[in-house]
Write a structure and sequence with these properties.
Layout lengths: L4 H10 L51 E7 L15 H17 L5 E5 L4 H7 L4 E5 L7 H4 L2 E4 L5 E7 L2 H4 L9 H9 L3 E7 L6 E2 L4 E5 H4 L10 H12 L3 E5 L17 E5 L2 E6 L6 H16 L3 E6 L11 E3 L2 E6 L3 H14 L4 E6 L1 H5 L9 E4 L7
Parallel strand pairs: 1-2, 2-3, 5-6, 8-9, 11-12, 14-15
Antiparallel strand pairs: 1-16, 4-5, 7-8, 10-11, 13-14
């Protein structure tokens, strides 16, 4: 059964949760009719030579220098149901997507993929510092649909392309399942493909060998029921260059969209140090218990935990993007909700400016700024 984001947003609210430069014309490239790439060994301008298998490829920490940022401008399909004439949700969403892109573009290059039907609007709404490239897609969550870009000590960069099934077959995803290969081809990066279903928001890394995820998401019946926890661990270690995996129990609830993405409750800020959402038991006993369990598991693994108060139901401050020289943070636009989290993040990042971007529609749609962005590590020759 297919659901629109409006269906999910409605259920969340009922539960009490509430001019750009141009690019080429698009479509999905680099794949055959089955969605399998033509080749996982093609080389491009960012492939610096043969890969030394003894030199491990590692998913860099998000605070490592970036060549740029990849985003997707959301088409209306998941936001405006069939026959719907009132489509204010997608209008608000696109305004926020464009505002996020424009904010990041003040600190690093940004490319915004957009469908041919939406490219003109994307160029109008984004700042002139954002490059719009046309491609086919189903939605706008690049953290989950884009490639994970790993790097070795020799500077070789490769794209790890995992399977994507629309967050457990909850949404149409035919084009989003392919776009990672198009992005990698555009960047000139060879791909390594794995059929394991894995969204980028389901994992966070410190760049030094440790990965954090949740049992709720990776072990969910709609992801990889044929893979054991041990088998998934080995795949993550092999593909992302980690040696330690910390399993938290759950993500924030309710969350019918991602089934417990880890980036909804915790973010790395340094090796061995994270910020973790916190909320009073009297205010939300369910999420309080989830977050206390997460804190206990993190601290048991030797991780220092800094608490970040969850002060808004519509803007998830924890779901920020670390840009070159900046932290781009979802805000509600109300001082009583934003000032404390922004102050904590500013204290934790004295070498970066903290920039708040209103992201209430993003929160209502089930995510934040981290969810709609995918960093490209330094060393990639920016082609856009």
């Amino acid at each position: 059964m297919r659901y629109t984001r409006r269906d999910v947003v409605g259920s969340m609210l009922a539960a009490g949760v509430v001019g750009c430069t141009g690019g080429r014309s698009g479509g999905s490239s680099g794949s055959d009719e089955t969605g399998t790439p033509d080749s996982s060994t093609d080389t491009g301008p960012n492939d610096t030579g043969s890969v030394d298998t003894a030199d491990a490829f590692v998913l860099p920490a998000e605070w490592a220098p970036h060549a740029g940022c990849i985003m997707q401008f959301p088409p209306p399909g998941h936001y405006c149901g069939p026959g719907t004439t009132d489509c204010t949700l997608i209008e608000k969403a696109r305004t926020e997507w464009a505002a996020v892109a424009s904010a990041i573009a003040e600190h690093e290059p940004v490319v915004m993929y957009a469908t041919p039907d939406d490219a003109k609007l994307a160029r109008k709404q984004c700042s002139s510092a954002v490059t719009v490239v046309e491609a086919l897609m189903d939605d706008g969550w690049s953290r989950d649909t884009g490639p994970l870009l790993v790097k070795n000590s020799s500077g070789v960069i490769r794209a790890r392309c995992f399977g994507f099934n629309g967050w457990g077959d909850s949404y149409s995803h035919e084009q989003d399942a392919l776009i990672k290969w198009e992005m990698a081809e555009d960047l000139g990066i060879p791909t390594d493909d794995h059929p394991m279903i894995l969204e980028g928001g389901a994992v966070i890394v410190d760049g030094a060998g440790t990965l954090i995820t949740t049992e709720e998401c990776l072990l969910h019946k709609t992801r990889n029921p044929h893979l054991s926890q041990k088998e998934q661990e080995q795949i993550l270690k092999d593909m992302l260059g980690v040696h330690t995996i910390i399993w938290l129990e759950n993500g924030w609830v309710p969350d019918d969209l991602t089934n417990g993405h880890v980036d909804g409750i915790v973010a790395y800020i340094a090796p061995g140090r994270v910020v973790l959402n916190s909320i009073a038991q009297s205010e939300d006993p369910t999420n309080h218990a989830i977050l206390e369990s997460a804190r206990e598991r993190l601290e048991a693994a030797g991780i220092e935990v800094v608490r970040l108060p969850a002060t808004s139901w519509t803007a998830f401050h924890i779901n920020f993007y670390t840009a070159n020289g900046a932290i781009i943070v979802p805000i509600e636009g109300r001082a009583s909700a934003d000032d404390v989290p922004l102050g904590i993040l500013a204290d934790l990042h004295p070498d970066r400016v903290v920039v708040g971007v209103e992201a209430n529609t993003l929160g209502q749609a089930g995510g934040g700024i981290h969810c709609i962005t995918q960093q490209v590590p330094q060393g990639v020759v920016w082609p856009y």
